[in-house]
From TrEMBL:
Ranges where the Major facilitator superfamily (MFS) profile domain occurs: 20-479
Record-linked SUPFAM superfamilies: MFS general substrate transporter (SSF103473)
Protein name: MFS transporter
InterPro entries: MFS (IPR011701), MFS_dom (IPR020846), MFS_trans_sf (IPR036259)
Principal location listed in the UniProt entry: membrane
UniProt xrefs under PROSITE patterns: MFS (PS50850)
GO-annotated molecular function: transmembrane transporter activity
Membrane topology: Multi-pass membrane protein
Superkingdom, taxonomy of origin: Bacteria
Species in which this protein is naturally found: Sphaerisporangium album
Keywords, in A-Z order: Membrane, Transmembrane, Transmembrane helix
Length: 502
């Protein structure tokens, strides 16, 4: 079937919509669970490949590549359509996973994981934009909540799944299992996702923006990673990377605003109230999520004396909050004209949960941290899909992919920033040697560790407070029905052309 413009939600049949959603969920699950599954297998991998010195860089290479490619892939989705970009991401992810499985040395694995991160970022940049193409506002926001729940669930099931696969088969199967799942996702996307035939060509790509963005973001992310790994902020390695990256980002800004005819990042979007506020909300809610996920197990094990196995299951309350409150938030947003109050509530809940965690001591018990985790999960479960839905309703249709991927980029960028800042606080309180003692089962008394984590979670709460203040300035706009928006814009998307639906 051909039409003169992109298909709106009402123009896509239920069967096609279902198949497209299955493909998107599989793609999201692959990109989300991959990190936590591989993390559980890393000790065995490092031992087998005799590469303990590069242990951390297997994760760093993936995270850096995924973060830097997100704004690029979002723009490409606007230019060439979501379907071909998703298919490239899935195909590349399958190939990269297979290459990781056959890696013979640790440097090879680091390189192949960077390649996997590149294609994983392509997927993350376009999955949530795809929902805007095939769902009406209420259903879109509910589905975004469900999708974020899938991503949150991967944090819980990933480590035990990775451990099981490693013990039952081998660590190589941690990567090989992505191949059949990825092929199934490719089939679903190929069949279910509408294809937009655009007039864009490779000459329209902002190559200058791509180059300067990569050269600016990569050093900053690596520098932040080094600070969280025990390097001082004032060390030559860290300062050189951070300052060099910042200068190149200034060049990127100049290229985008003065030379690029089709800029990678449309900077005028930051003058839009809804976009600017939701970027702040996305960044600080992700900051809180990373800090909670990474340091709450340390709180349970080092302060409350809970076993490592049991401490992992105690992250489930946060995950349940993510899964349950996301779809609820979708219904509330479409029914509540002043949905700014919902954003205020979400950030306040996250802040309250972090303040509760900052009060936990050796004799507190497990009730307080569990309640805190529920509050944090509830707030994140509302804030994540809300940020995406509000931005998609406030920006021009031609910039839908670029705008949505910016929200995802700032979420991903918040991860290394959180680990760098919070890791510096912890090491400053107990020392790098003290951290090794905690992880090894001795050295730091629970009371001393509790004091260090008090400052850590209090800092997180203050950071989230910035996001809370920003929500008071949000100006509500009606949630956009994509079919009506396309009719109003004459059927134009990221580029002129026609749509061919599967």
């Amino acid at each position: 079937m051909s039409t003169g413009g992109r298909p709106g939600p009402q123009e896509v049949s239920s069967r096609v919509q279902l198949i497209a959603t299955i493909g998107a969920i599989l793609a999201l699950a692959l990109a989300s669970i991959d990190v936590s599954v591989v993390g559980a297998a890393m000790p065995r991998i490092a031992d087998d490949l005799q590469g303990l010195g590069l242990y951390a860089w297997v994760g760093v290479s993936y995270a850096v590549a995924a973060a830097v490619v997100v704004p690029i892939a979002g723009k490409l989705g606007d230019m060439f359509g979501r379907k071909p970009v998703l298919l490239v991401g899935l195909g590349g992810f399958v190939i990269a996973s297979w290459l990781c499985g056959i890696a013979q040395t640790m440097p090879q694995l680091v390189g192949f994981r960077g390649l996997a991160g590149l294609f994983g970022g392509i997927l993350m940049a376009n999955i949530f934009t795809l929902l805007a193409d095939i769902y009406t506002p209420e259903r879109r926001t509910q589905m975004q909540g469900l999708f974020f729940g899938v991503a949150g669930l991967s944090m819980v099931i990933g480590p035990p799944l990775g451990g099981f696969i490693t013990d039952a088969w081998s660590w190589r199967w941690v990567f090989y299992v992505n191949v059949p799942l990825g092929l199934l996702a490719i089939l679903a996307v190929a069949v279910g996702v509408p294809f937009v035939r655009t007039g864009a060509s490779w000459r329209d790509i902002d190559f200058g923006g791509v180059l300067t963005l990569v050269l600016g973001v990569v050093p900053i992310l690596i520098g932040l990673t080094l600070t969280g790994d025990g390097h001082a902020w004032t060390s030559p390695e860290v300062l050189g990377l951070l300052v060099g990256g910042a200068l190149l980002l200034v060049v990127f800004f100049l290229v985008e605003t003065r030379r690029a005819s089709n800029p990678l990042v449309p900077f005028p979007l930051f003058r839009t109230n809804q976009f600017a506020v939701m970027v702040v909300v996305a960044f600080f809610s992700a900051f809180a999520m990373m800090g909670t996920t990474f340091y709450v197990p340390l709180l349970y094990q080092g302060v409350l004396g809970v076993s490592a196995t049991h401490s992992g299951t105690l992250l489930i309350p946060m995950t349940l909050g993510l899964m349950l409150f996301g779809p609820v938030a979708g219904k509330v947003m479409t029914a509540l004209p002043r949905y700014r109050l919902l954003a205020v509530f979400a950030m306040a809940a996250i802040m309250a949960g972090l303040l509760m965690l900052s009060s936990v001591g050796p004799h507190t018990g497990q009730v307080v941290p569990i309640v805190a985790m529920v509050l944090i999960g509830m707030g994140i479960g509302i804030a994540f899909p809300m940020a995406t839905a509000v931005v998609q309703s406030a920006i021009p249709m031609s910039q839908m992919g670029a705008g949505t991927s910016q929200i995802q980029f700032w979420r991903m960028f918040a991860g290394p920033v959180a680990l760098a800042v919070l890791g510096s606080i912890l090491s400053g309180q107990i020392g790098v040697a003290g951290q090794a003692g905690v992880l090894g089962g001795g050295g730091v008394p629970p009371a001393q560790l509790a004091d260090a984590l008090h400052d850590l979670f209090l800092t997180s709460a203050i950071a989230v407070g910035i996001g809370l203040v920003a929500t008071f300035f949000l100006k509500e706009v009606p949630l956009r029905d994509m079919s009506m928006a396309r009719k109003a814009s004459g059927g134009r998307g990221g580029a002129k052309g026609k749509t061919v639906t599967a």
